[in-house]
């Protein structure tokens, strides 16, 4: 079988997402007839039918659904390879660290200060994102390293170093009766009729069922809490963005959250090695680290998990 070209995958993804050849052609900036021919050639090459067509548009077959999922991942991988290659060709580029806005603020500040004190250390550019976006930014090559949180963030496939373990708090409206409590339980915060927990989108963009409002950004969430429309449970260090209209109450039985430094396998450059050493020195139980840039698994390297 001939190799499938990235151009063909890009064409197919456009059609699969639009489910209409005319709209897909307009999105790609090409005419519809060559797009239709390209999809037909792709189907012949693969030996399967990817789309069922009718006068109203198109519908994905089971094979088409598989290819859509795999094609998106393949195109993301190609884009990430291009970004990483370009950055690797610039020895003076900063190391890009992505982190959720407002999360682990004090730890991030200490990490940047420690890295700045490393002789010859590369500068660190901080890329702020919304909840759950760090994994995507690492995989698509927009960032070199991330501060992430176990068990909530997607750490699959990344190398990691654990930095800090902490408890969680409920952020509630200051005027709500819950704000007067010294402590709360998950059962208490999960069943408040007039203050349902906000719902974040899943990885596929859909929302879980529930009465709470749908949110996509922390600014939305902060305002909804201040208005008395929702509450949330977060790591205690994330209170850095807390408004005066918010009150933080410890949730005694919430699972502990571990802040980790994460990066893609194979991306352990000297600049990253320096940052990992700086991060390991900030861990809850630090240990002596070597003077030379270590590689994962080498004697004296910080403990790395996958």
- Write the element-wise H/E pattern from the N-terminal end onward: HHHEEHEHEHEEEHHEEEH
Percentage of residues assigned to helices: 25-40%
Which value, in Å, is the CA radius of gyration?
24 Å
Structural class: alpha+beta
Tally of distinct domains: 3
CATH-defined fold name of the largest domain:
D-Maltodextrin-Binding Protein, domain 2
CATH homologous superfamily descriptor of the largest domain? Periplasmic binding protein-like II
The CATH class name of the largest domain reads: Alpha Beta
Low-confidence residue ranges: 285-303
Q: For the largest beta sheet, what order do the strands appear in spatially?
A: 4-3-5-10-6
Proportion of residues in extended strands:
15-25%
Kindly state the number of beta strands: 10
The average pLDDT score comes to 85
CA-CA gap between termini: 35 Å
User: Helical region count?
Assistant: 9
The main sheet comes to: 5 strands, mixed
CATH architecture descriptor of the largest domain:
3-Layer(aba) Sandwich
Family: Belongs to the LysR transcriptional regulatory family.
GO molecular function: DNA binding; DNA-binding transcription factor activity
Domain HTH lysR-type: 4-61
Pfam families: HTH_1, LysR_substrate
Describe the structure.
This protein has 306 residues and is α+β, with helices and mostly antiparallel strands. The chain has helices at 6-18, 21-28, 32-46, 62-88, 105-116, 134-139, 186-190, 218-226, 270-280, and strands spanning 51-54, 57-60, 95-100, 124-129, 145-150, 159-166, 168-173, 232-235, 246-251, 257-263. It has 3 domains: 6-86, Winged helix-like DNA-binding domain superfamily/Winged helix DNA-binding domain (Arc Repressor Mutant, subunit A, Orthogonal Bundle); 95-157 and 265-280, Periplasmic binding protein-like II (D-Maltodextrin-Binding Protein, domain 2); 168-251, Periplasmic binding protein-like II (D-Maltodextrin-Binding Protein, domain 2, 3-Layer(aba) Sandwich), CATH 3.40.190.10. Strand 3, helix 5 (105-116) and strand 4 form a beta-alpha-beta unit. Helix 1 (6-18) packs across helix 2 (21-28) and helix 1 crosses helix 4 (62-88).
